[in-house]
Amino acid sequence: MKQVATFGAVLGPLLLWAGSALGQQADGGAAPAAGNSDHVNVVGHLGIGYLGRRTVLIAGPGTGVADPTPVDAPVLGVRYWLNPMLGIDAGLGLSFTSGSVTPPGGDEVDKVGSTVFILHAGVPLSLASSQHFSFQVVPEINVGMASATQELDPAPDNELSGFHLDIGARAGAEIHFGFIDVPQLSLQGGVGLSFAYDSVSASNAAGTDPDEESSDSTTTFGTSLAGNPWDIFTGNISALYYF
Description:
By secondary structure, the protein is mainly beta. It has helices spanning 2-28, 38-41, and strands at 46-60, 64-81, 87-97, 100-101, 109-110, 114-122, 125-130, 133-152, 155-177, 182-202, 214-223, 237-242.
């Protein structure tokens, strides 16, 4: 009985203290943290945003495959974390251009417009996270197609096309803005390694023989920052907002 009385004497004040603490928390409207990082707290939530700028090469009007034209299509998409480690990325990039030009004293001439589609898929892996930071490796694939028509009246039109495929992985960080009380917003960036294949073709580059199609293809393997240093702020930075 003495042991029971002693246990009751200790347990009673503890329960009173716990009840008082819970009551204060309820009055304050605060909820306990769901995880030890902003990343853990967005698991099971859908993120929507900008997944980076992608480029597809297309044969140039007049120059054909000798001097292809790069066409950009920013990719918009979603990210969903299945668990704290594994997620899914999916995105689509579109670009449609058209126009016309009227020289002095001349007739209006249509510009060579283009249509570009880019499909993006990735499997982000969060290897470590703490507070507002998540270190990630993202295996990904991008497939892009571009087309355009150069009118050569009375000659047959010159059909221009381009195709892009890259497979690789990026390593970097996703930074959540929990430090300013907006943990749903994040920026992510990184560098990576990828295999890329590009091809362009023109059906009538010379404007005289539509049966002599010209084509050119290039295969590259290297880092994702093989161009200018500022590419990290265009093609390798993305932004998401989780709902």
